[in-house]
Amino acid sequence: MEVAPRCFKPLNDSELFVRNIRLIGRLDIKAPNLIKGIHLEGLRVIGSPNEHALCYYQQGADELIYMDCVASLYGRNHLGDIISAAAKDIFIPMTVGGGIRSVDDATQILRAGADKVAVNTAAVANPNLITEIARQFGSQCMVLSIEAKQVGPERWEVYTDNGRERTSLDVIEWVKRGVAMGAGEVLLTSVDREGTRKGFDIALVRAVTQEVTVPVIASGGMGKQEDMVDVVLQGEADAVAMADILHYRRATIGDIRYVVQAAGIEVRSYDQTP
Amino acid sequence: MTKPPEVVVIDYGVGNLLSVRRALEHCGASVQVTSDPKLILAAPKVVLPGVGAFSKGMDELSRRGLDTVVREIATKGVPLLGICLGMQMLFDESDEFGMIAGLGMIPGRVISVPTTSSDGHSQKIPHIGWNSLVLPQGRTSWQQSLLHDIKHGAAVYFVHSFMASPSDPEDRIADCLYGAVPVSAAIGRNNVFGCQFHPEKSGEVGLKVLKNFLSQ
User: What distance in Å separates the CA atoms of residue B30 and residue B18, rounded to the nearest whole number?
Assistant: First the structure.
């Protein structure tokens, strides 16, 4: 496979200066607990979401993603209190997803201290919601969350409700539509790889990054530091969301940053002291 | 025991103020978020936050009579920090959707972030993400400035489509480079300061900037 990573071969100066690949801690939550599943199922309790969040912030995470795993099932997001508590100690951008069904839901969670909202199920049901949120808060605030399952060679289907429901939508068609409607970023979760530690679905990530110009966050399957290097260099991911590897303390954000940087990937210059 | 510094965050209906408040509190300040001119005029330090469109920001300020209040406190010598749109509004005018007058406390204009880099390639707008602070041409250090004790190259978090262009190069404290184009990232003129980036979302570096402001 011919690889032309954006971070190695800058096509223009802007890529040189701001193509910082982001390291994102992902917290899947079934209130009040931080949980972790495999293929988004068989959820196991890890601990307190904000203890882990604070730890990843202190390790130098560039952003955090909070996902309410059961929100779509019950029709609302329960993360308001958790986010509002996190905003006392955590001073990096936070994205919140799970059960965001309206501009009002988005407003509430942004007021609680979130910077962006991630929408999956409700956007599939009503794609206009993408445009409404983008109009109200700017497209940088509207993250399209996609749960993808492979259904054939180079073919992936969109799932909703935390990987429970199929939609018959093709991932590539849907991501193009979502971006055209105003999504400013894509959170792409491989249901097949999620929680397996087998590495990212690089073909999926690459198929998406080749189709859209907005940043794509690869999620699902990070087993070791090198997996991040692969999904950035081969998949051209703009950011990587990691959960299991951090929750089970198999590596710190600092360890990962070091390995990724050593592979020649541009990341934020990070120093414990200002 | 020293009393924590009192700081007022101006609430003029634009953007989410919780994060700014929490960050200032984290720095040890007792914070009041208000749109009451009396409280703002009595404040020892004032923060003017803001996200969104310049015209909307100016409209919301003047609708509440706060444009004159902000000018008055700045003239009195009260330390004032504008964040993001709040920094842009400190300037004379903006060309966002036609020419709109700003607060006129720092000489200069607000212009679009160039959509082409210095070598002619197109680049993404808005400018979003972590970018490094660098010394503007002609400046040799950040000591005794808003960025006191911050390391050259430290990264902070940006989200913006427009940028300030100060007419007096002395007012530029820090730049960041976007497509090799210098973007004014932090400014200061006497007691009036601004940062284009979000110190409340820039980790420990951002908190240090706020601490520096609080110790002005």
Answer: 14
